[in-house]
Amino acid sequence: MDRDRVAEQIVDIIVQEGKVDRAQITPDATIEGLKLKSIDLVMILMALEQKFGVYIPIDGDLADAKNLNGFIDLLASRIITKRA
Amino acid sequence: MGRTRVVVTGMGVVSAAGTGVDALWTAARSGKSAVSELELPRPGRNYVTIAAQFKGFDPERYIEQDTLLFSDRFTQFAIVAADQALAQAGFDRDAALGARTAVIVGIGSGGINSIEDMLYAFHVLEPHYDPATNPSIIPRIPLTIPRAMGSAAPSQIGIRYGCTGPTFAVTSACSSANQAIGLGAYLVRAGVVDRAIVGGAEAGITPGSVRAWETIRLLTPDHCRPFSKGRNGMVLGEGAGICVLESAEVARARGAEPIAEILGYGTTSDAKDIIRPDPDGAAASMQQALDDAGLAPTSIDYINAHGTGTVMNDAVEAEALHFVFGAHLPKVAVSSTKPIHGHALGAAGALELIISIMALREGVAPPTINWLGRDPECDLDVVPNTARAMPIRAAMSTAFAFGGINAVLVVGGPS
After folding, report:
1. What does the pLDDT read at residue B2?
2. What is the pLDDT of residues B144-180, one digit of tens each?
3. Which of B155, B207, B236, B308 could form a disulfide with B44 if both were Cys (CB 3.0 to 4.6 A apart)?
4. Between vectors from CA A69 to CA A64 and to CA A75, what angle results, nearest 5°?
C-alpha cells in the first residue's frame, strides 16, 4: 500500500469523523488543539475499520499521541502492517 | 453492642472455567486462561475473535424444563451458581426461606441473548416466515419479555428457594455485582433481613454486543494484559457468582460454617463523565470501604483489582490506589484475574470477590497473567504471571464502571 495515499485517507476520515476543519490540519497541529476527544478517536477508528478492514485497538502509543502528524503516522503503520 | 457482623456461608460460580468455585479458583491460582476462540450463534462481521465463554454449559443438567423455558443464559448461570451457594450454606430446594431472605443480583446487559434472538427473528426471519418449513422462530418472540428482564435472575432464585423478602436486580454496569453484594450486606447489618442471596450474572457475548464492544474500541484482538506495558484492551467474559450472606448470629444459631466475613463496602459516583473513569471517585470508594471496615490501608494484603486491561482504566486505577494506599502500596499484592475469566461485566465483582475469598483462605495471591513488563503509569506489585503464597489478613475487591459508578468490598477470614 502507498503510505502517502493511506495518510491522505486518514486525514479525510479525521476531518469527517473528528469534525475538524481541514484548514486546521497543519504540520504542527496537536490532538488537543483539534479538540479530539477519546470518543472522536473511537469514531475515527471505526471509519478506518470500514475503509481498510482492519481492527486497531487502543494501546498506550495511540492513547498518548499528542501531535497530529505522529498520530497519522501511527495509524498508517498499523493499517499497513495489518493489511500486509 | 457492636455492629451486626455479616458472614458468607455459601458460594457458587459459573464461569468460562466451568461450574463451581474450584474450577474458577484453580484457573485463577494456576494462571490458566479460559479465553478461547469466540463462538457465536450466528456468523457476525466481528473483528475480535476471542472471549472467555463457557462453551460446554449444559443448562438441562441443572434446570427443569418449565424454568428453562423462561430463562435467558444469564438467568441459567445465576440459578446454577445459586444452587451451589445454597447447598454449601446448608439449604435444599424445599428450604422456603421466606420473608427474612433477600435476593439481590447484579446484572449488566440482562437478557441480551433473548433480545438479539428476538430482533433477528422479528427483522430477518419473520418477514419470510413459513410455518410449514420453519416453526423454530415461534418460541423466540413470545418468551422475550420474561427472559430479557434483568430481574428474571433474582426472581427465579427466589421462586426456587421460596424467598419472599426484598428481591431485585442492581444494574450499574461493571459495578453491579459489588453493589448487589454491598447492599445485601447493608440489609443484613440493618436487621431488615437475616440473610441475603447476592451476586451477579452476565451472558452478554452475542454477535451484536461483541460488535458494540469492539467498535467502542475496548476489546483486545490478542491478549488481555492488565497493568502491563503493551496492553490494548479487555476480553469479554460471562458467568455468575452467588454468595449467601447471613448475620453471624443467625449463621451460628443454625450451625452454619462461615467461609469469610464481609468487613466493608464503599460506593461512590464520579458524577463527571459517562465513559471516562476518574481517580478521585475510585479512590473515594476504596477509602469508604476501608472506613466502613474500620481498617487502615496497612491491614490490606491483597487487592483483586478491576484491572480491565484497557490503557485508561488501569492507569486511573493505579493512580487511585496510590492516593489511598500511599507508602503502603508497594507491600500490597494487586492482581487482575480478568485475563483468566474475562471481564464478566455485571458478574465481574461476584467472581472476583469469590476469588479474593479463596485467596484469603488459601494464602495465595493469584497472578496477573500475560504481563510483559512494567508500565510507569501502573507502578504496582501486580503478582506478575505466577501466583504467590503469602498470608492475607484482609482483601479488597474493586469495581469501577462506565457511568462513573464505583463499588468496593473488603473481606476478611471468619473469626
Report:
1. 82
2. 999 999 999 999 999 999 999 999 999 999 999 999 9
3. B207
4. 65
Look up the ipTM and state it: 0.90
**Which three cell numbers, joined as nine digits, stand for A54?**
482492519
Of B374, B380, B367, nearest to B318 by C-alpha is B380
Break chain A into its structural domains and give their ranges: 3-83
Domains and CATH numbers, chain B: 6-111+149-412 (3.40.47.10)
Contacting A residues, span 27-56, partner chain B, CB-CB under 8 Å: 38-39, 41-42, 45-46, 49, 54-56
The angle formed by the CA atoms of residues B161, B164 and B166, to the nearest 5 degrees, is: 115
Please tell me which residue of chain A has the smallest CA distance to B274: A39
- Give the number of other Cβ atoms within 10 Å of residue B30's Cβ: 14
pLDDT at residue B40 is higher than 70: yes
Instruction: Cell 467502542: give the residue.
Output: B216
Question: Structurally, what CATH architecture does the domain formed by A3-83 represent?
Answer: Orthogonal Bundle (1.10)
Catalytic residue status for B224: no
- The answer to whether the CB of A74 falls within 8 A of the CB of A62 is yes
Cell triple for residue B91? 439449604
Q: What's the rounded Cα separation, in Å, for the pair B228 and B380? A: 10
Q: Is the pLDDT of residue B140 over 90?
A: no
- pLDDT per residue as tens digits for the range B363-399: 999 999 999 999 999 999 999 999 999 999 999 999 9
Distance between CA atoms of residues B179 and B346, nearest Å: 10
Start-to-end CA span in chain B (Å): 17
Whether B415 contacts B261, CB under 8 Å: yes
State the CB neighbour count (10 A cutoff) for residue B222: 14
Measured in angstroms, the CA of B279 and the nearest CA of chain A are apart by 17
pTM: 0.96
Asked whether the beta carbons of residue B215 and residue A42 sit closer than 8 angstroms, the reply is yes
Find, among B182, B190, B156, B151, the residue nearest to B169 by Cα. B151
CA distance B224 to A61: 16
Phi-psi region of B191 (alpha: psi -120 to 50; beta: other; left: phi over 0): left
Full DSSP string of A1-43: --HHHHHHHHHHHHHHHTT--GGG--TT-BTTTTT--HHHHHH
B82 part of contact set with chain A, CB < 8 Å: no
Active-site option among B223, B224, B343, B378: B343
State which amino acid sits at residue B322. H
**Grid coordinates representing B191?**
436487621
